[in-house]
Design goal:
By secondary structure, the chain is mainly alpha-helical. The chain folds into 2 domains: about 5-90, RNA polymerase sigma factor, region 2, helix turn helix motif (Rna Polymerase Sigma Factor, Chain: A), CATH 1.10.1740; about 100-185, Arc Repressor Mutant, subunit A (Orthogonal Bundle), CATH 1.10.10. The chain has helices at about 5-15, 20-40, 45-60, 70-90, 100-105, 115-120, 125-130, 135-145, 150-160, 165-185. α3 (about 45-60) packs across α4 (about 70-90), α6 (about 115-120) crosses α10 and α8 crosses α10. One of its GO terms (biological process) is DNA-templated transcription initiation. It comes from Maribacter vaceletii.
Amino acid sequence: MDSKQTIKNIIEKAKLGNQIAYSKLLHTFWNDVYGFQLKRTENESDAEDITIQTFSKAFDKLSTYDSSYKFKTWLITISKNIHVDLLRKRKKDIINVKDNNEDYKKVLDDAPSAEDQLITEQNLATLLQHIKKLKPHYQEVINLRYFNELSYAAIATQLNEPVNNVKVKLLRAKKLLAEVITRNK
């Protein structure tokens, strides 16, 4: 199976709400979108924020994706538009996600991922040391979700961000934490 076909299959699974498919799309295309934004913004924080918002919006609108275009091109277009909006509005939080809980449920389900399993295997003291190696906003979302046991909606309210942004941040934070844990085994 070629990679073009594989991506198409992953997208189809994601459209059906498969959490692992969303994770694969995020992990596969994160560096492309982030690198694109880093060149445009010349600011790591803005590039990361825009990349998170890009995946949030893309996952929310995945049903509108036209497979006659490359998925990466579609993501970059979304990312570019978000950056243009950011420049116009001079604000960091620019996505207004409709308050529709059904859309949010499609992005992630509660099935534990490989990262979740790796994280749970760590003893608490070691895990806390690993979490401290993450950027502060990733530490915060991990702490709110796993230590304060807040729902996505509660985290979104506390951080004053759309729920989809919280879900994408959490996916990214778990991946980075799993990489830290794996490097330090």
